[in-house]
Specification:
heterodimer; A: mainly beta; 0% helix; B: mainly beta; six-stranded mixed beta sheet; five-stranded antiparallel beta sheet
Chain lengths: 111, 114
């Protein structure tokens, strides 16, 4: 049981480049989430998917898009990366909307 | 006013002492409360959750909830250097129009001195 996995672990982008962060869970959870974590700001919700086929904006959705590919996978896309998107990105999942389990994170730097 | 507030610390306690971490929240209707531990460079790891007023104990950890005063705390007994980490408080409630979101505090850094 791998839990929540994320790829890649590290990424460096130039301003304007695009990339997709991948997340998968093997716990048969219904809900999945994308957060970013910045020093002094805590964890902030970018997008979430309460169930397969649905996605909703969180607190800081601008500059991001998501796809809930199936029940297991939830990807986050940066269409045109900006330095302000330098952060650590965490994917999480939960069976209902309560207890969330986090992946190992992706450390993204945008130059 | 922040929705979930924690003292950023660092909170420094000697090994073997009780560490007390506190969290206040703004949504009086919040029903679910969580404590996560995050080691430097790692992802948050769930320690405990609590739904009802009062105390909930799990090993060396005790979560305390007081809905009337809108605070939740985490006590760590017999603190060990391995407990040194950032502790995140999370509250589920209606924030910003989206129901049932988990809102995280910015965390309290705990340092246990050998």
């Amino acid at each position: 049981n791998a839990g929540v996995t994320q790829t890649p672990k590290f990424q460096v982008l130039k301003t304007g480049q695009s990339m997709t962060l991948q997340c998968a869970q093997d716990m048969n959870h219904n809900s999945m989430y994308w957060y970013r974590q910045d020093p002094g700001m805590g964890l902030r919700l970018i997008y979430y998917s309460a169930s397969e086929g649905t996605t909703d904006k969180g607190e800081v959705p601008n500059g991001y898009n998501v796809s809930r590919l199936n029940k297991r996978e939830f990807s986050l896309r940066l269409e045109s990366a900006a330095p302000s998107q330098t952060s650590v990105y965490f994917c999480a999942s939960s069976f209902d909307t309560d207890t969330q389990y986090f992946g190992p994170g992706t450390r993204l730097t945008v130059l | 006013q922040k929705e979930v507030e924690q003292n950023s610390g660092p909170l420094s306690v000697p090994e073997g002492a009780i560490a007390s971490l506190n969290c206040t929240y703004s949504d009086r209707g919040s029903q679910s409360f969580f404590w996560y531990r995050q080691y430097s460079g790692k992802s948050p790891e769930l320690i405990m959750f609590i739904y009802s007023n009062g105390d909930k104990e799990d090993g060396r950890f005790t979560a305390q909830l007081n809905k009337a005063s809108q605070y939740v705390s985490l006590l760590i007994r017999d603190s060990q250097p391995s407990d040194s980490a950032t502790y995140l408080c999370a509250v589920k409630g209606d924030y910003g129009g989206a129901t049932n979101k988990l809102i995280f505090g910015t965390g309290t850094l705990l340092a246990v001195q050998p």
